Amino acid sequence: MIREILKMGDPRLLAIARPVEDIGDPALKDIIADLYETMRAANGVGLAAPQVGIGLRLMIFGFESNPRYPDEKPVPMTTIINPWMELLTEETEDGWEGCLSVPGMRGLVPRATHIRYGGTLEDGAALEREARGFHARVFQHEFDHLNGVLYPHRIRDLTRFGFIEALFPDSELAALERPIATSHVEATGPRP
Ligand code: NI
Q: CA of 190: how far to CAs of 51, 53, 54, 77, 136, in Å?
């Protein structure tokens, strides 16, 4: 089921999510399936449970290719429950980010360039991985959602934050972020 994505300003996006306690709970499988369906409908490269109003430490991300980030290399499709992260460098790099909770906008955000992360996979197995570049950026962005942090909170130079069509007037990116997901939500009937 496609769920409504909360928008910046909703206090639920600022809350600290709580750990998932029962990985075998069948309700968790449904939530994960909904996260994937919702992320795909919105052309997202990641989605965290709090973005659909579920205050759990659960996130998904990954893509083969994505029209919203056409220049980025693929990131493995990953579901992580109760994730953790460790910085492997103090070096940061600025990169443009968007967020399904901040539709139509982009901002230049500093992120660590090399991290180790992990957590529990859907089948209960432990995951541990190193990531660099855009992969590391995507993880950090989604991980932030579990702690009530949105990318605009991390922008150091607010002159590098704005609407896609104004920042990148020659790009077709803006058209991709008209709110397609919303019409899907309305079409699927009552929300949970
Ligand atoms: Ni986001």
A: 18, 15, 17, 29, 36
pTM: 0.90
- Reported as a single tens digit per residue, the pLDDT across 110-160 is 999 999 999 999 999 999 999 999 999 999 999 999 999 999 999 999 999
Q: Which fold has domain 11-176?
A: Peptide Deformylase (3.90.45)
- Tell me the residue type at 110: P
* 99 Cα: distance to centroid of ligand 1 (angstroms): 4
Domain ranges of the chain: 11-176
Burial class (CB within 10 angstroms; exposed 0-12, middle 13-18, buried 19+) of 24: exposed
- Cα(94) to centroid of ligand 1, in Å? 16
Burial class of residue 68, CB neighbours in 10 A (0-12, 13-18, 19+): middle
Residues carrying an active site annotation = 142
Q: Tokens 């967020």 belong to which residue? A: 99
Tens digits of residue pLDDT in 60-92: 999 998 888 888 899 999 999 999 999 999 999
Question: Cβ distance 65 to 143 under 8 Å?
Answer: no
**How far does the centroid of ligand 1 lie from the alpha carbon of residue 144, in Å?**
8
Phi, psi values for residue 73, rounded to 5°: -75, 155
CA of 60 to the centre of ligand 1 (A): 11
